[in-house]
Amino acid sequence: MTIPTVYVTSELNASFTCESCGKSYTKDVSKFVRHKARVRLKYKCKCGHIFSVILERRRTIRKDVCLKGVLMQNEKQYPGEITDISPNGLRFKTLRKALIKEDSTAEIKFTLDNPNCSEVRRFIKVRKVLSEYSFGCEFESSEHFDDLGKYFLFYF
Ligand SMILES: [Zn+2]
């Protein structure tokens, strides 16, 4: 038996249906969303049926974006833009040719296109040099507890 996966809404609710009688529920899952990417929850329906759902708060799909940012490495600054982003990493395009090596670490600062235009700073690892202008980067951690975490939850 496969356990159904449910997604967290922007109101921090999740909706699911009892597989036995078809009654649907919307539950407040706000207390779970900060902990783990996936949480297994157990519910008892009014009909007596007990069932589990997997609460998925993170979607690992990449999103094409256009976010202005600066990559910083060895006291050099490379202004440019993020062209796609996921909780695991991003692709950064520099305005000028950049001598950035594969597997080197750097810091990145960028502005989100959320209503607050939040500024985000992260340490990253350059995983792939795609050209002298384009770099595939990985976040140090794929857990984001600031506005970037909310961005992945609600603007994806
Ligand atoms: Zn039921």
Main beta sheet, described?
6 strands, antiparallel, barrel
- What small ligands are held by the chains? zinc ion
Largest beta sheet: what is the strand line-up?
Answer: 6-7-8-11-10-9
Number of structurally distinct domains: 2
GO molecular function, one term: cyclic-di-GMP binding
Protein name: PilZ domain-containing protein
Domain PilZ: 56-140
InterPro entries: PilZ_domain
Textual characterization of the structure:
It is a single chain. The chain is mainly beta and 156 residues long. It folds into two domains: 52 residues, no CATH class; 92 residues, predicted glycosyltransferase like domains (Thrombin, subunit H), CATH 2.40.10.220. The protein contains one helix and eleven strands; from the N terminus they run βββββββββββα. The protein has a six-stranded antiparallel barrel with strand order 6-7-8-11-10-9. A three-stranded mixed β-sheet has the order 1-5-4, with no helix packed on it. Strands 2-3 form a two-stranded antiparallel sheet. The longest helix has 8 residues. The chain is elongated. The protein starts with a strand and ends with a helix. The mean pLDDT is 89. Zinc ion (ZN) binds next to loops. The site of zinc ion has 7 residues, from loops. This is PilZ domain-containing protein. InterPro entries: PilZ_domain. One of its GO terms (molecular function) is cyclic-di-GMP binding.
